[in-house]
């Protein structure tokens, strides 16, 4: 096998996906495959370049299952490097090549790159040629400078907006746990699986991405059911509760309550 595949899962973010595709086209080394998986999105699913589609789930979007499906397609197409990008992410021209180089050099490390959260776009949209001037990585995650690789990363700081791994590492983890449906938990779970599989986590300064703006709630009250359900799945698997900041904010608002070690939606 040889080649680099970018895997993107999309649900009703067609405009963001189009800009991501445009940014990938400007890469210094374009991916050999862009595997787009549509989730409950018939418009994207109908496109000739869409690689796979999944229906929605009554509990929420099956993002973990969709990422696994994207990896399956990428491997079937011959990729040996898997790059996972959130649909909201635009890429620096060097991101694909940086991930491919790092994975080939150190295939037992699952690599993440710094992500900058962008302000709302100007009327004519983001200028893809000048994204580097907006570089300001999220302060809650490591952000090594260009040319720097850090290993031994904290699994609790892993996020799935932008990361890459070898196919061998992917097979070793078994992919994302598909018990998680809807918002939250599956990426921290995946990092724990990575750490428990004899693999390492790292941060790669040359793999920089830019998260397109969209409205959000803080805390994400529209996802309270998903977060409570997925936090309990994680607790049963790992013995600790993730997303505590959100859960405590929900508790302060009267949306959830504690029952010993469990969290429950009120009402």
UniProtKB/TrEMBL annotation:
InterPro entries: Galactosyl_T_C (IPR027791), Nucleotide-diphossugar_trans (IPR029044)
Pfam families, A to Z: Glyco_transf_7C
Domain Galactosyltransferase C-terminal: 162-201
Pathway(s) served: Cell wall biogenesis; cell wall polysaccharide biosynthesis
Domain of life: Bacteria
Record key words, sorted: Glycosyltransferase, Transferase
Gene3D superfamilies named among the record's database cross-references: Spore Coat Polysaccharide Biosynthesis Protein SpsA, Chain A (3.90.550.10)
Family under the similarity heading: Belongs to the glycosyltransferase 2 family.
PANTHER family: GALACTOFURANOSYLTRANSFERASE GLFT2, RHAMNOSYLTRANSFERASE WBBL
Descriptive protein name: Glycosyltransferase family 2 protein
The species this protein was found in: Nocardioides baculatus
């Amino acid at each position: 096998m040889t080649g680099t595949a970018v895997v993107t899962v999309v649900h009703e973010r067609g405009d963001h996906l189009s800009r991501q595709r445009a940014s990938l086209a400007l890469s210094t080394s374009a991916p050999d495959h862009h595997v787009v998986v549509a989730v409950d999105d018939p418009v994207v699913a109908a496109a000739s370049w869409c690689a796979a589609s999944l229906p929605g789930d009554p509990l929420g979007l099956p993002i973990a299952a969709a990422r696994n499906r994207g990896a399956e397609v990428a491997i079937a197409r011959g990729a040996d490097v898997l790059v996972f990008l959130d649909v909201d992410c635009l890429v620096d021209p060097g991101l694909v090549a940086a991930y491919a180089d790092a994975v080939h050099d150190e295939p037992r490390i699952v690599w993440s790159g710094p992500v900058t959260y962008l302000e709302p776009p100007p009327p004519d949209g983001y200028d893809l040629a000048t994204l580097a001037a907006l570089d300001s990585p999220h302060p809650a995650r490591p952000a090594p400078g260009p040319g720097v690789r850090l290993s031994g990363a904290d699994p609790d700081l892993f996020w799935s907006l932008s990361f890459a791994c070898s196919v061998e590492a992917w097979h070793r983890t078994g992919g994302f746990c598909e018990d998680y449906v809807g918002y939250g938990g599956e990426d921290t779970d995946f990092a724990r699986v990575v750490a428990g599989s004899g693999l390492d986590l790292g941060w790669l300064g040359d793999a920089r991405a830019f998260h397109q703006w969209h409205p959000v709630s803080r805390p994400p009250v529209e996802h309270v059911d998903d977060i409570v359900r997925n936090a309990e799945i994680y607790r049963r698997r790992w013995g600790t509760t993730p997303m505590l900041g959100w859960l405590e904010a929900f508790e302060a608002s009267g949306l959830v309550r504690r029952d010993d070690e469990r969290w429950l939606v009120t009402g």
